[in-house]
Amino acid sequence: MGPNGNEGEAENIFTRDRAPTRSQKRVRQLVTLGIIVLVLAGVWAYLQGGENRALNALAPAQREALFQETRDDFRLLCMGDAGPKLLNRCQKQAEFLTRFSECDEACHQELAPMLRKAVR
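Request: output the structure for the sequence above.
Response:
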């Protein structure tokens, strides 16, 4: 028969007449969920690196100045008697200072007490 004939229609696997089976729906749902999870994980990972990218984008002189100012603030606020009252802020500053390449071994040792308290 010609192109409008009924012959061969039952064998056409590309028709939309067939409803997807329950297992096909489940597979589609799982694939969609997997893609969504991967996209969200990628966005989360990108956002986590944002602070490091911002630090690396600074000119060396600006970066050094920011490091020194933050370290001086840390020493003033967190190394004295006020430290326990400002524990949360001190922990955040300590974590931030460790992101600088200027934070050498002595710097890490100075920050260690605040970093240990941040770990639960």
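The helical segments are 22-48, 50-57, 60-78, 87-97, 105-118.
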